[in-house]
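On clarity, I found the account of how folds are encoded harder to follow than it need be. For illustration, here is how one protein appears when written out as sequence plus C-alpha cells.
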Amino acid sequence: MNSSHLDPLHPPTGIDRWQGERRGLEAELGELITLDALTGPNGLLDGEVLQDDAGGAAGWLIAQRKGGHRHSVDDVLTAWYALQISPPVKEHLDLGTGIGTVGLLTLWGMGAEARLTCVEAQDISYRLLQANLDANGLRSRVDSLQGDLRELALGRRFPLVTGSPPYFPPGSGVLPQDSQKAHARFELRGDVGDYAKAARLHLAEGGWFVVCFPSPQKQRALDGIAAAGLKVVRLRDVIPRETLPPLFTLFACQHPQDFDGEATIQEPLTVRHANGRLTESMAKVRRVFGFADGESHGGYDT
C-alpha cells in the first residue's frame, strides 16, 4: 500500500483504506484479520484532534490475526508506564515489537514530532507491523527492522527503550502450535535478560528502560536486569481484578551511574473491580490513549 500521500503529523485511519488493507491481508495470509482500536478518537497531537480522510476525529487502528497472538493489557500498561516515567523524547526504541502495540502507543503519547525505531524477528508479526504502519500513515515516523534483538547493534543510543518480552522458559508449559503465539509467550528468542542486555547497549545516559514481566517470576526479571548491567529504579505490580494476586510487574530501569539508591516499590495498579468494571486508575490510562470515557473499544484483553 502506498501511503506517501498521508500526512505523518496527523495520521488518518480512513476506514475504507483500513478495510482494503484488512481484505488484502486476509487474502494474503488465508485467515481472518480483525481491526481493533489502538488509540481512541479523542487523542491530541500538539493540541490538535486527529483527523480521518473525511475530516472527522480518528485514532489509530491495529490489524491482528483473529486466531493469533493478540495485544493485551500488559502492552498497554508498558507503554503507559514508559510515558509516566520518561520525559518527552524525540525518539525511542522498542524491542521485540511484535505487531507494534507498545512502540506505537508510546509514539502516540510522545507527540507528533517523535520517532520510533523498532525490531521484530517473526515474519508474520513483522508483516502485520508493516500493514499497521502503512494504514495508519506512520511509515515516515518509524524505522522498523526485522531481526533478532539479541544481535541488535545499531550504534546509536536512545533516551527511552521499551519491551514486552515473552514470559515463560521453554519446557515450562505446552508450546502453542501457532508460531506467533509460541514466540510471544515462550522464550524462544531470548528472555528478559536478553531484552535488558539489548536495552543497555542502546540506552543513552540518563535514559530509561521500561519492561514488564510476570509478578510470580519477578526475581527472574530482577536478576536478568542486574546481570545486564542495569538497575531497577521503580517497579509497580498490576492486579487484573480486585481480590486477585498481581499478574505482572512494570519495571523502570537506568544505568547504574544514573541511579545509586534503592528501588521504589509503587502502589499496585488494579485494572478491574470485582464486578468487572474498569477502576478509575485504569480508566485514566485509557484516557491517556484517547478514549474519552476511559473504556476500551476493542482489542485490550485482560
